[in-house]
Write a structure and sequence with these properties.
Structural class: alpha/beta
CATH class of the largest domain: Alpha Beta
CATH architecture of the largest domain: 3-Layer(aba) Sandwich
Shape: elongated
Radius of gyration: 27 Å
Strand content: 5-15%
Number of strands: 15
Strand order of the largest sheet: 4-5-6-7-8
CATH topology of the largest domain: Uracil-DNA Glycosylase, subunit E
Largest sheet: 5 strands, mixed
Helix content: 40-55%
Number of domains: 4
Bound molecules: uracil, iron/sulfur cluster
CATH superfamily of the largest domain: Uracil-DNA glycosylase-like domain
Distance between the termini: 82 Å
C-alpha cells in the first residue's frame, strides 16, 4: 500500500502533480491510500517514490475539466474516485461517455453538487459594510464544499469597485480592487453583525413576505435552513410567522391579492407533473426563487436572472428571447438597444409600456466571450423548454389576456417548436386557456439588418403589427394599453 498526500484540497495543478507519476508507474487504485494535508493518519502505508522510468500517461482535457470541479467536493472519496477514473481512462478511452458507469455516475453527482454549492454562494452571500464609507464590506458564508476559490471571481467582477472579504470556516478571500487574495479560514465573529444594509434587507423581505400563502416547506426548499442563519431577514421570519394570521385578515380586508383559487387553478394548468408542488403567491416571490434557478446551465455564466416586469395584472404580456448584455448587467428586461427601439415604436403606435408586462422566454443571458465583449447566443430548445417553467409562472400570476411573441424563440416557447414568424405573423392565435397570441419580429432583427432601406421597411411592418395589437386590446373591455398622453413625436 502506498500513502499519497495531496498538499491542497482543491487545486488541480497540485493534484495532477501527485497523480501523474502514479499513473505512469501503473499503480493500481486499490494500492493507494489518499490523504489530505493535515490528516492525522499520515503514517499509514509506505510513501510512494516514483520510479525513474515512467510510461506515457493519457488524460483528456475533458476529464481534467471534470476533475477540477469534482476536486472541490467535500467528500474525501473524491480523491479515490478521480484517480480510479484517471487510471481506467488509460485503457478505457470512452469511459467518460458511459453515463451508467458507477464511477461516472458518482463523478456527475459530485460535479453537480459543487456547481450548485457555488451557485448558492453567489445567491446567498450578503455583504455587510465595515465602516460608514460604504466601500469596505465583509460577508460570512458556510459553503458545503470547497467552492470559495471557484466562486470568488464572480464577486470580483460584480463588485470590482469595492473592497470586500468573504470569510468561510476553511478559507477566506479578500478583494483589493485589483486581485483576489486567498487566506486561512475564519470565524463568524470576524464579520460585524449589524449595519444599515441589513435593515434594508429586512424591510425588503418583510414587504415580499405574503402571510396568506405562508408555506414554510416551500420557503425552506428555496432557501435552505442552513443559509437562513447568515441572512439578516432570517431573524424576522419567526416574527412574521407569528403575525401572519393578523396580517392575513388585514390583507383580506384590504383586498391586496387576487382570490387564490382562481390563480391556483390557472397555475396548475401550466405546470408539468414534476413541478406540481411549486407555487408562488406573487411575482416578487417567483423572481426570488428564479434567482437560484439551476434548471439549465445558463445560470452559470450570467450575472443575474432577469425576470419579467410590469403591472401584476397587465392585460398584455410581451415576450422577448432572452436578456442581452445590458439587461444582464442591469437586471431589467429590454433596457439595452433592442429595448430602446421597442420603446420608440411602442410610443409611435401609442402603446404605454408601463401598462405592459415585459418578459423573455429565457431568463439568463447566453453569450460567448469575445475579447472584452460578450456576444449574444441563441438559446437552444432545451434551455427554452427548461425556462418555460418561469414563463408559465409569470403567465399564471399576471393572467394576461393577450401575449405578443417578439421573434421566433418566444413564438416557439408559447406555441410549440414548429412555430415560425413567416407563417404566424399578424393574425391573432387563440389558445386553449382563452388567451390570444400575436407573433411579430424581434426588435433586434431590425437592428441587425445591414440594408438600411430594408430595415426601414421592416420597422414600418413591426409598427403596423404593434398598432393592430393596440387596437385589439381596445376592443377588449378594460384591457386597453393605450398611452393616456399624446405620443412624444419625432
Ligand atoms: N432582447 C430580448 O429578447 N430581451 C431583452 O430583454 C433584451 C434584448
Ligand atoms: Fe433557470 Fe431559465 Fe436561468 Fe435556465 S435560463 S437557469 S431555466 S432561469
Amino acid at each position: 500500500m502506498y500513502r499519497v498526500i495531496v498538499p491542497t484540497r482543491n487545486e488541480l495543478a497540485r493534484w495532477r502533480d501527485c497523480v501523474r507519476p502514479l499513473l505512469a508507474a501503473r499503480i493500481s487504485p486499490e494500492d493507494i491510500i489518499w490523504l489530505q494535508a493535515g490528516d492525522a493518519d499520515a503514517l499509514l502505508g509506505e510513501a510512494f517514490t516514483p520510479p525513474r522510468i515512467l510510461a506515457g500517461v493519457r488524460v483528456s482535457r475533458q476529464f481534467m475539466e471534470c476533475a477540477e470541479i469534482a476536486l472541490c467536493h467535500a467528500d474525501r472519496g473524491r480523491l479515490d474516485l478521480l484517480y480510479r477514473i484517471a487510471f481506467r481512462l488509460q485503457s478505457e478511452r470512452k469511459l467518460l461517455t458511459i453515463e451508467t458507469d458507477p464511477d461516472i455516475v458518482l463523478l456527475t453527482r459530485f460535479n453537480k453538487a459543487v456547481r450548485r454549492d457555488s451557485h448558492k454562494m453567489t445567491a446567498f452571500v450578503r455583504f455587510r459594510a465595515l465602516d460608514q464609507t460604504n466601500e469596505r464590506f465583509a460577508a460570512w458564508f458556510e459553503p458545503e464544499h470547497f467552492t470559495l476559490e471557484r466562486t470568488a471571481p464572480f464577486f470580483a467582477e460584480r463588485f470590482a469597485n469595492m473592497e470586500w472579504a468573504i470569510l468561510t470556516p476553511c478559507r477566506s478571500v479578500f478583494w483589493n480592487r485589483e486581485r483576489l487574495i486567498f487566506g486561512e479560514g475564519a470565524k463568524k465573529e470576524d464579520v460585524p453583525a449589524q449595519d444599515a444594509l441589513e435593515d434594508a434587507w429586512r424591510t425588503y423581505f418583510a414587504s415580499i413576505f405574503n402571510p396568506a400563502r405562508l408555506k414554510v416547506s416551500a420557503m425552506t426548499s428555496e432557501m435552505p435552513r442552513k443559509y437562513w442563519r447568515n441572512l439578516p431577514e432570517a431573524e424576522i421570519i419567526p416574527d412574521l410567522i407569528r403575525s401572519a394570521q393578523h396580517r392575513e385578515a388585514e390583507m383580506i380586508r384590504t383586498k391586496a391579492s387576487a382570490p387564490p383559487t382562481r390563480h391556483q387553478r390557472q397555475a396548475a394548468r401550466h405546470k408539468s407533473a414534476e413541478d406540481e408542488a411549486v407555487e408562488f403567491s406573487s411575482l416578487t416571490q417567483a423572481k426570488k426563487a428564479a434567482e437560484t434557478c439551476t434548471r439549465c446551465p445558463l445560470y452559470e455564466n450570467a450575472t443575474q436572472v432577469v425576470f419579467g416586469e410590469g403591472p401584476a395584472e397587465a392585460p398584455l404580456m410581451m415576450v422577448g428571447e432572452q436578456p442581452g448584455d445590458r439587461e444582464d448587467i442591469e437586471g431589467h428586461p429590454f433596457v439595452g438597444p433592442a429595448g430602446q427601439l421597442l420603446d420608440q415604436v411602442l410610443d409611435e403606435v401609442r402603446i404605454d409600456r408601463k401598462k405592459v408586462f415585459v418578459t423573455n422566454a429565457v431568463k439568463h443571458f447566453k453569450f460567448v466571450p469575445r475579447g472584452k465583449r460578450r456576444l449574444h447566443q441563441k438559446p437552444n430548445g432545451g434551455e427554452v423548454s427548461a425556462c418555460r417553467f418561469w414563463l408559465d409562472h409569470e403567465r399564471a400570476l399576471v393572467k394576461p389576456k393577450v401575449m405578443v411573441a417578439l421573434g421566433a424563440t418566444a413564438a416557439q416557447s408559447l406555441l410549440g417548436s414548429g412555430a415560425t414568424i413567416g407563417k404566424l405573423r399578424g393574425a391573432p392565435i387563440e389558445l386553449d386557456d382563452g388567451t390570444t397570441v400575436f407573433v411579430t419580429v424581434h426588435p433586434s432583427f431590425l437592428l441587425r439588418m445591414p440594408d438600411r432601406e430594408k430595415a426601414a421597411g421592416e420597422r414600418v411592418a413591426f409598427a403596423r403589427d404593434l398598432e393592430a395589437i393596440r387596437e385589439h386590446m381596445e376592443s377588449i373591455k378594460g384591457a386597453s394599453v393605450a398611452l393616456d398622453r399624446a405620443p412624444a413625436g419625432p
